[in-house]
Amino acid sequence: MKKIRLEGIVAILCVLVATALPAVVLRGQNGGFSYDKLYIYCHESGKSIRQGLEEYTAHVTAALCEGFKDVPKGAAQAISIAARTQILLNKGTSCGHDYCTSGAHSLPYKADCPENVAEAVKETSGLVLSLGGALAPAFVHYSSYLVTQSAFNYTGREISCLVSVSSPENIEPCEHFVSFEEAEVIFEIKLGIETPDLSGELIITPDSTGRAKSVRILENIIGGSEFAAAFKLESASFKCEKREEGYLFRVYGSGDGLGMSLCGAVTMAEDKAGYGDILLHYYPGTEIVPVYTLLK
Ligand SMILES: [Zn+2]
């Protein structure tokens, strides 16, 4: 009888420790940085807001889902897990706070969170992406043409979960016309090429994913991503046609192509994929785990 009661108490204690410990550990992390008290600088109001990890995850996920009408559940859940992982990886100082509401300084943020997104965040509460027992670099981008980019192509550094994988979205390219006058200014001011000679063709050398590795104009060679950024092209996956008055760019996909494609996640979820299928497709070799299992 005594033994049974003792076992009962031990069992209750175990449950209490398992549920309460993560919260205690989370609060004590990193010399005062507390996951239930994230300080966010709100650019719109000029005020400081305090949110817990889950609340902030909902606002970041809402911003990432903003471009889509009715994000299917599996995609919203996958995006929320990637967002939570990125939040924990990016804790730092933005405008004197842990984060801020400007996507240019910190993670993207949307003040109102649609119900389906809030639901997806709740359903995946506390889940993050792990690579070898640490938070995985869960980068996301808007869309990829055929395949995603690899960390190796992008930075020269191999990262096992950021390799090029297929991406199922069906996207139309967008076109941009840049006149020779505009191009001259961009070459000079943004790319530091003095008195550019535009008489030659732009020669694009693709990397293994079809994105521009480099762009050459006569003797000048420019990195593909640098070129895309200077010309405000949505991605480094582009073709260029020289016309009489300037260049016509046809751009495929949007973003750097690293990690999960948001359009691809939505397409996969529309085809009935769950968040696990989506995340493990875009971040091979990772695991989806409760965040407290990563805390030492
Ligand atoms: Zn800011």
How is this structure best summarized?
The chain has 296 residues and is an alpha+beta fold.
Based on DSSP secondary structure assignment, what is the total number of beta strands?
14
Helix residue percentage:
25-40%
What is the general shape?
A: globular
SSE pattern: HEEHHEHEEEHEHEEEHEEEHHE
Content of β-strand: 15-25%
Please identify the structural class as seen in this structure.
alpha+beta
Ligands bound here? zinc ion
- CA-atom Rg in angstroms: 23 Å
Helix count, DSSP H or I runs of 4 or more residues: 9
Low-confidence segments, ≥5 residues, pLDDT <50? 1-33
Distance between the termini: 37 Å
Features:
binds zinc ion, 3-stranded antiparallel sheet, 36% helix, single chain, alpha+beta, 3-stranded mixed sheet, 296 residues, disordered N terminus, 2 domains, 9 helices, globular
Report on this model:
With 296 residues, the chain is α+β, with helices and mostly antiparallel strands. The protein has helices spanning 2-28, 53-65, 73-89, 115-123, 151-155, 180-190, 224-230, 262-270, 275-282, and strands at 38-42, 47-51, 99-100, 127-131, 134-135, 140-141, 174-179, 202-206, 212-217, 220-223, 238-242, 246-251, 260-261, 287-290. It folds into two domains: 34-139 and 260-294, no CATH class; 174-251, no CATH class. 36% of the residues lie in helices and 20% in strands. The longest helix has 27 residues, at 2-28. The radius of gyration is 23 Å and the shape is globular. The two termini are 37 Å apart. Residues 1-33 have low confidence and may be disordered. The structure holds zinc ion. Zinc ion (ZN) binds next to loops.
